[in-house]
Amino acid sequence: MTRMIPSGGFHPSATLVNINPYVFHIGLVLVFFGYAPHIAFIQRITWLRWPALPDGVMYVAAGATIISLLIALLFRLTDPVLKRISRPDDMITWTVTFLPFITGMGVVSEPSATLLARDHVVYGGPLAIHLLSLELLLIWFPFGKLMHAFLVLPSRMQLATFFGRRGVRS
């Protein structure tokens, strides 16, 4: 875990570049695992349940995640190095990650307790678009850079082994 914290010595302008991925990933986890309708959806499929976070926390986390994604896109489009190394995969990955957040915010119109108290879906069209955008994300997941969610530990272990062979101290 200590290797995830950026080391000192970076130029002050690099602070946002270092913090933005943390904002995105923490917001993503909070929204996916903390929002009451998402927990209810997971419970219907797996019977697992846990306490939900308050709606206010979810709205702030979703807003911060959307802003973080927009900042990441701005970096990718304006930074000469990122622009040069970007491929279509990066833009597709950004789009399929951004769509569930925007469509999810479009579905939210009432407090989650009110939504969960109903026995039917009030906004079928917007919810269907939200679920379709999530399904598009899940279809793209194994083919794009999103796979880093599962490959992060094996790749870090491989890199550590490589550096260990070369005599790099940690």
Layout of SSEs?
Blueprint: H1 15-34, H2 36-46, H3 55-78, H4 80-85, H5 88-107, H6 112-117, H7 124-140, H8 148-166
Description:
InterPro entries: NarG-like_sf. The protein has 170 residues and is mainly α. It has one domain (2-141). It contains 8 helices and no strands. Helix 3 (55-78) packs antiparallel against helix 5 (88-107) and helix 5 (88-107) runs antiparallel to helix 7. The radius of gyration is 19 Å and the shape is globular.
Number of helices: 8
What is the general shape? globular
Strand fraction equals: under 5%
Q: Helices and strands: which structural class?
A: mainly alpha
Query: How many distinct domains?
Result: 1
Q: How many strand elements? A: 0
- N-to-C CA distance: 13 Å
Overall residue-averaged pLDDT value: 86
Helix content: over 70%
H/E series, N to C? HHHHHHHH
**Biggest sheet character:** none
Radius of gyration over all CA atoms, rounded: 19 Å
The low-confidence runs, each spanning 5 or more residues with pLDDT under 50, are none
Keywords: Membrane, Transmembrane, Transmembrane helix
Transmembrane segments: 21-45, 57-79, 91-109
Protein name: Nitrate reductase
Organism: Acidovorax delafieldii 2AN
Task: Give the key terms.
mainly alpha; single chain; 0% strand; 170 residues
What's the gist of this structure?
Helix content is 72%, strand content 0%.
